[in-house]
Every structure is written in structure tokens, then in C-alpha cells.
Specification:
Helices cover about 20% and strands about 35% of the residues. It has about 200 residues and is an alpha/beta fold. Strand 7 (about 125-135) and strand 8 (about 140-145) form a beta hairpin. The structure holds glutamine.
Length: about 200
Amino acid sequence: MSESLPGAGKTIGVLALQGGVAEHAQMMQDLGAQVVLVKNAAQLENIDALILPGGESSTIDRLTRIFDLRQPLIDAIAGGLPTLGTCAGLIMLSKTIEDPAPGQQSLGVLDVSVGRNAFGPQVDSAQVFLPWITPAGDEVTIDTAFIRAPIVTVPGEGVQVVARHEDKIVGVRSGKIIGISFHPELTGDTTVHEELLSLID
Ligand code: GLN
């Protein structure tokens, strides 16, 4: 039965240093994929795609350096590993953080500038239905949650804007990288996760 699921035969790594790891892992398992909770560089070797979850980007950044994952992550993603970053994960992927925490770095693999907490504090969290542009160019509606969400302030060259909320850029795609400000893993909408699976050769 699992043969017919989009994740069948695929292994997805979820960076598991801090943040909303379990929900992504569950969603990928529900889609039929094997999941590896990535905590060291060796685990990046045998995955077909990677998810950088939401959480606190300055903490995740610090932990990637403590666990010697920073350069291996950059090498894997820049080397073409299909990657989805959600919320703090989008901040991690970005080239420039406009308002970083003291000492905060990003991986610099996605040519965008981001602003953190652009929709206000935790209390302003919201469930939102958003238009999403698929790789085929169709517009679909996705069901998402915004929690202290960042925005893309400047999309760089080759970066396609695929979602906006309140006129702000909240979804981008560039090659095999998808960056989103929000959390479909919390609402159960599998559109973006299935798109990540479709990027695997
Ligand atoms: N604002 C958080 C940060 O800067 C991200 C919030 C989230 O991932 N839900 O990392």
C-alpha cells in the first residue's frame, strides 16, 4: 500500500537540534517516507531531501556550530540536496538576516534577505489560507499557521516568489530549495511537503 504514497522509497532528513521536528517527521512518515532525525554530519550522507524546521533560528544556528553541522549543511544544500526550510528554517537558509540576534549567522544558501518576526509576537499567531504557486504554475490554496513568522524582504536572482500574505513575501523557491515563513506541518496540509518529495531525482 505504501508503494502508492509519494514518499515511498524516499528518506527525508529533519534537522533535529531544536524546534518543531516531530510534526515534520510525522507528516513525512504519513506520506510514506523514511525519516532520519539529523543530529550529526554523517546522517546527511544518506538522505534524499532535508527539512529545516521552525523554532528559534538563533538557537538552531548556535547548535549547528556546536554540533559541527554548519559547513556540512552548507555543502549538502549548495550541492543540490532538495531542502525545505520553514520559518526559522527559512531564516537559516537565507543569505542575509536583516535583524539578527547578537552573533547570529545563517547558512547563506538561498539568495534572499529576511526580516524576523514580521507579523508580530507569538500572540499574533494565526491560521491562514494562502494562495500557493505550484512548480507547474497553477495556483492552489494551502492551509497554514503563522507563528512569529519571518518575511522575505529581498528575493535575489533566480528566486521565485510562490506565496504572499498581507502583500509580504512568505514563500519562495530557488532550484531545489523551498523557503516558507509558515507551518503547514501544523495544519496537516501536505502540499509543500509533497512538492519537496517531487524535487527528488
Ligand atoms: N521568529 C523565530 C526566529 O527568529 C522563528 C519562529 C518560528 O520558527 N516559528 O527564529
